[in-house]
Amino acid sequence: MTFEAAVRDPVFRRRSLFAPAWRRVLVVGVIAFVVRAIYWAALLHHYQPISDANQYNQLALNLVHGHGFSDTFPQLAVHPTAWRPPLFPFVLGAVYAVFGIHLFLGQLLNALVGSVVVVLVDRLGTRIAGSTAGLVAAAVAAVCPELLANDVTTLSEPLSHLLMVGIILLLLQRRLELAGVASGLLVLARASAQPLIPVLAVWALVHVGCRRALRFTLVAILVVSPWAIRNWIQLGSPVLVTSNGFNLAAAYSPEARQTGSFVDATKDPRFSATWPLERKEVAWDSALTHLSLSELRHHPSELFPVLGRNSSDMFEIRPSTNIPAEMSDGRNLDFRRHTLWFFYITTILGLAGLGAAWRREGTRLLVLVAALFTAGALLVVSPPRLRSPFDLACAVGTGLLVARLRQRGDLRRRSQGRTRRATSDFDDAASRVEPHGVGASDEQGRGI
Questions:
Q1: How far is CA 337 from CA 279, 319, 320, 341, 343, in A?
Q2: If you ran DSSP here, which 8-state letter would residue 189 be given?
């Protein structure tokens, strides 16, 4: 078969880069990357990572320099740590090791990963409700200000989004073993993903049966196990992260209850009694966890003001309260201020679309995963950066709503078209009958 004949062959076209689906994937990915590149060049060309982004970058640098997975935080000396999940620092460190230690490579990595996330959002929307839903969802995700801001820093969000949307697609395709691999990797990429495996195991049990659900769970545990074993050896406990106590103390410690807002256990002098324990991360994490949960047991009603504050922060009810967190995450505050309307509109449209398409399995699974991450943030700390799974779900929901409205419009137009055709057919039939009727009447008249 010649090349020209092969290209015309339907099977070849379905598998080739020239097939319409692949062309669409390329176009969506390129547009998403161009948008990120413009944002990067225009607003973040002098970016320097601070806070969480700096910690991820330092972990990657220590890996490249042969110090292992280590950092100075929360101590002063470089030491083995589990403060941050390991996957993104390992990926970033691999990029530095291969191409050189340049910060822009980390930003480029996340811009590329974020563009692939937009492509997967298109695939997910298309899987749930067709081509229109996918394209609109991808368009919203491509220009969403919150996602743009994450995708040109050295934060772990883009990689987490890639795994999150990939897991949903794999589960919908019933590729449970690959979904188990991706779920384990997501636990190693995002601290708030720790409950993910049992939640998805229950979903798998309900939808595909006990045996495949068990395989999914075992594969996910196998992926996570090497990290837990490493922490057992180096830190003395098979923990996944050592930041849970810090986050709980920020919201539920006696100091947080007295302050009525977020407190930092590494800086607030009221926590000075726990500072000597920082040399042993697991012990420090355990002490802060015990302190916070004990306070919550004695004051369970404290859960409600925490939820209220976090909901206000996450859903931009009082946007000014988020300015310190946004500055720490490397956001451009002018861009944030001028684009905040986008969040409100897509939230309303997205929730309406998710509600309208609730009966579809893909919608319910997306809502389950996004709700898991959103609830975790609302219960502890919730800067806008951690809202990104909710933003992705609303992007898909907006696509679902537009597709549904378009479908209703098409049905209405087809119904009107059928009515017009029926009326036209009736008129044609009447016009054919009318001369005969008039002639008969004339004959009767002449007969009379």
A1: 41, 9, 10, 9, 11
A2: T
Q: How far is CA 36 from the centre of its chain?
A: 17
Distance CA 106, CA 154 (A): 6
pTM of the model: 0.88
Name the one residue in this structure whose structure tokens are 């947080």: 256
pLDDT band at 16 (very low <50, low <70, confident <90, very high): very low
| Distance (Å, whole) CA 12 – CA 439 | 65
Specify whether the CB–CB gap between 185 and 162 falls below 8 A. Answer: no
Residue located via tokens 């068990």:
214
Residue 53, both tokens: 């982004």
**What torsion do the CA atoms of 363, 369, 372, 373 make, to the nearest 10 degrees?**
-120
Contacts of residue 134, Cβ cutoff 8 Å, sequence gap at least 6? 121, 122, 123, 124, 125, 126, 127, 399
Note every long-range contact of 59-64, with CB atoms under 8 Å and residues 24 or more positions apart, other chains counting: 59/84, 59/86, 59/89, 59/93, 60/89, 60/90, 60/92, 60/93, 60/96, 60/106, 60/154, 61/93, 61/96, 61/101, 63/89, 63/90, 63/93, 63/97, 64/93, 64/96, 64/97, 64/101
Across 315-349, b (16+ Cβ under 10 Å) vs e yields bbeebeebeebbeebbbbeebbeebeeebeebbeb
Q: What is the mean pLDDT of residues 292-310?
A: 93
Higher pLDDT, 435 or 28: 28
Spatial CB neighbours of 261, under 8 Å, sequence gap ≥ 6 = 309
Query: Does residue 19 register a pLDDT over 60?
Result: no
Token readout for 390 is 């909710």
User: Is residue 97 over pLDDT 60?
Assistant: yes
pLDDT at residue 130 tops 50? yes
In 279-330, alpha helices (H): 281-298, 303-314, 323-328
CB 378 within 8 A of CB 310: yes
Cα dihedral 388→393→399→403 (10° resolution): -170
80 backbone dihedrals φ, ψ, rounded to 5°: -60, 135
